[in-house]
Amino acid sequence: MATIGDAPPVEHPTAILAPTTEFHAAAPPYAPPARRTPAWRRRRGGRRVMSRVLLVAIVAAVAVWTAGVGGELFGLLREGASARAVPAEGGSLLRAVALERALTGIPDGARVETLRVTTDHLDARVVVNGRVRLVRVTSKGLVTDLPAAEKPTGEAVRVDPRAPARIVRTVTRRTNRRVTSISHVALEGTRWQLTFSDGAQFSANVHGRDVHRG
């Protein structure tokens, strides 16, 4: 009687596997990342364009100016016109200390014929070496000095730098008006004349005293 033990051993069959093929996705061609222009370069480029435009505008303006007003100014420069700066106190020239500092812009030895003072500048008609000159001094110390074709009047005024402040103080106290409503203060002959923006006028002597309306 045959038994299981008498049966020949069974060999394990070798597994037959179907060959596999590996597929690899084709890699996209390499493209270097786009280079971004730095912001500072973009700004610099914009500035260059603006600089060129501004330069062209300036050249055109200078050409027009030279053909017109410039020619007249060049003539004034040949005749002795000048511009300079002097130390400035700053603030309104209707203040004594500021006006006193601004008066240093008038040429040494000049004879003052008339003087007109506002909060931000003074205008003086002066005579230097027998010739009339028109001098403007601003509250910032900028001085322009131009020759004039007019002849001297032969008159001269005595300038007290504290006089405008005195007349301003007296008039504003009497009228309750603000200093900002003053147009100018002018000295001709022996009297100062204070004029408001609305035309109202007050006068005072060379020292800013003896104030009268009109």
Uncertain runs are: 12-18
Gap between N and C termini: 160 Å
Which strand-content bin applies to the residues? 15-25%
Structural class: alpha+beta
Question: Strand order within the widest sheet?
Answer: 1-5-4-3-2-6-7-8-9
Number of helical elements: 3
Shape: extended
Order of SSEs: HEHEEEEHEEEE
Helical proportion, percent range: 25-40%
Transmembrane segments: 49-68
Keywords: Membrane, Transmembrane, Transmembrane helix
Describe the structure.
By secondary structure, the protein is α+β, with helices and mostly antiparallel strands. The protein is built from three helices and nine strands, in the order H-E-H-E-E-E-E-H-E-E-E-E.
Write a brief caption for the model.
The chain crosses the membrane at residues 49-68. With 214 residues, the protein is an alpha+beta fold.
Task: Please describe the structure with a list of short key phrases separated by commas or semicolons.
alpha+beta; 3 helices; nine-stranded antiparallel beta sheet; single chain; 214 residues
List the helices and strands and how they pair.
Blueprint: H1 39-78, E1 82-85, H2 96-102, E2 111-117, E3 121-128, E4 131-138, E5 142-147, H3 163-175, E6 182-188, E7 191-196, E8 201-205, E9 212-213
Antiparallel strand pairs: 1-5, 2-3, 2-6, 3-4, 4-5, 6-7, 7-8, 8-9
